Amino acid sequence: MTAHDPALPPRPNSAPTIYAYDEYDRAFVRERVAEFRGQVERRLAGALTEDEFRPFRLMNGLYLQLHAYMLRVAIPYGSLTSRQMRQLAHIADTWDKGYGHFTTRQNLQYNWPKLVDVPDILEALADVDMHAIQTSGNCIRNVTADHFAGVAADELEDPRPTAEFLRQWSSAHAEFSFLPRKFKIAVSGAEHDRAAIKIHDIGLRIVKNAEGEIGYEVIVGGGLGRTPFVGKLLREFLPRADLLAYLEAILRVYNRFGRRDNKYKARIKILVHETGLDEIRAQVEAELAAMDRAPFAYDAQELERVVAAFAPPDYETLPAHSDGFEKAKAENGEFAAFAATNVAPHKVPGYAIVTVSLKPIGGIPGDATSTQMRALADAADEYGFGELRVSHEQNIILPHVKKDDLLALWRDLSAAGLATANAGLISDIISCPGLDYCSLATARSIPIAQAISERFADLERQRLIGKLGIKISGCINACGHHHIGAIGILGLEKKGVESYQITLGGDPTLSASIGELLGPGVSAEEVPDVIESLVQFYLAERRDGEAFIDTWRRLGHKRFKESARREGEDGSGI
What we know:
Layout: H1 23-44, H2 50-59, E1 62-64, E2 69-73, E3 79-81, H3 82-95, E4 99-102, E5 108-110, H4 118-127, E6 144-145, H5 160-170, E7 185-188, E8 202-208, E9 214-220, E10 232-239, H6 243-257, H7 268-275, H8 277-290, H9 300-309, H10 323-331, H11 333-342, E11 343-345, E12 351-356, E13 367-369, H12 370-383, E14 387-390, E15 396-402, H13 406-415, E16 430-431, H14 446-455, H15 459-465, E17 470-473, E18 487-494, E19 497-504, E20 516-517, H16 527-541, H17 548-555, H18 557-569
Parallel strand pairs: 6-7, 7-8, 16-17, 17-18
Antiparallel strand pairs: 1-2, 2-5, 3-14, 4-5, 4-13, 8-9, 9-10, 11-12, 12-15, 14-15, 18-19, 19-20
Helix pairs in contact: 1-2, 1-4, 3-4, 3-12, 5-9, 6-8, 7-8, 10-11, 14-16, 16-18
C-alpha cells in the first residue's frame, strides 16, 4: 500500500460530474501543505508555543479537542468522487482509528490524528484534490448546497456552479481571512430548501423574476448558537451578474462594523439585529455603489466553463416506470420500506436519488467506518457514475441510480450495514460529537441519540410516526442544530450534572423557525421518556398526513407543553 495514493482509479463506467481542480488549485493546496508542514515541525521542535501555533493550525482545519487533535476536511458543497471517498477511507485506516465523522457542514472530521502525521494526511488529501483549508477560523467556511443539487425533480437550477464560484472567490480571500467571526454561506436552487439557507450568515436561493431572468434571493443574518436568528430577506432579486460584487459588499460591511469586542456578539446576525435590516441594506448598497466592481465583473465565458464541469452524466433513455422496481417492492417488504423512506424522485425518467443513512439504530450519527466508505465508493461506481454527496443531515447521497438497479444497490448496502430505512424519520437524528470528543461541550450528545433511536427501533412504528426531525447539541454552540429541530435537545451542565433542555417547533426549511422551550431541563435517563410522551400526544392529535411540526403549529406550543407536564405527574416527561 502506497503512502499517499492508494485510491483505485474510477471504473470505466464512472463519469463524476463535479468540478475538477485545475493546476492553480493544485499548486495552491500543495503550497499550503508545505507551509503547514514547516509550522508543525517548528511546533514539535518547541520553536512555536501552542498559542503561537493555534492560528496556523486553525487555518488548516486542525482543532485541539478534548482528548486529541481533530482534523476537519472540506467537502465543497458536499460533492465527492468515489476515488476521494476511498482516499478518506485510507486516511482513516493509516492515520486515525478506522472511521470518519460526517458533519452538518458537509465536511468530514477525523477525531484522533497525531500532530506529527497531519502534514502527511494533508498531502494525501491533496493527491485527490482535497484539503482542510478554511474549515476553521474567522473566515468564510466551506460553502454548502442542496445535497440533491443537479438531480432534484423540483430544481430550478443546479446550485453547485454558484457554490463553486463562491469557493473560488472566498478561498484565501485577503480581506476576509480575519473576520470578526466565522462566516457560513449556503445555496439552494430548488422549490424546497434542503440546504437550510435561512440559518446561515448568507443564504442564497436561485429564483426567476417576472421577466424570466435567473438571479438570487439573498438572505442575511441567520445563525444558531448562543443567540439564534432566522435570516432576513436582504434582496428579493439579485441579478446573476451582480452576485460576487454584492457578496463582497456584504462582507465589507460586516468586516467593518461587526463586533470584535465580544466574540458572542461578533456574528453578522447580531449586526443585523442591532443595526436593523433597512440600515444594513442601505450600507450594502452604498458600498456596492462606491466600490471598484471591475474585479467582480460578470464573465459569461467563465460561467459556462464552470457550468460545463457539472454537466449531467451519460444517462440512459429509460421509461419513468420500472416494472422490476415495482415488482421488487411488492415481493420484499424490507426493500419496500427502504424505497419508501430513502429513495427520492429524480429529474431524469427511470432514475432515482438514494439517501444512505448513517444513523443505524444505536449507532453514532454521521460516523462511517473505512470499510463502509469503501462500500459507498463501490456503490457509487457500480450504480451512480462514481459520484456521492454529503448531506447536512449527516447522511450520504447517491444521486444517479437507475430504478432498475435499486434492489441490487439495497442488497449491497445491506451487506455493509448501510441500509437502515429511516431517512427523515425519528431515528434519523442529527447530533454533534458532544462531550465524548469536544472540548467546548458541556454534556454528551451521542448517548442521547443512541438511546432515542433504540427507544424507537421498530421501523414500522417509525413509519407510522412519519417525518420528525430530532437534533441534538452538547453545548450552546448548537453544532447539532437543535434550535431548528422539530424536537431539539440541548445538553448543558448544571451543578456538575448533565441536564437536557427540550425545544419544539424548530424548522430548517423556507418556513424556518426557532424552537420554543418545553420546560425545565431533564436528566439523560428521562429524555427518551419525554420524547415518547410528545410522540404519543402527537399521534393522538394529528390529522391525516400531518407531520409533527404541522400538528405543533396547529395546536400551539401550550398544548404540547401541557401534555408533557401531565405526563410528568405520572412519573415520566417534564
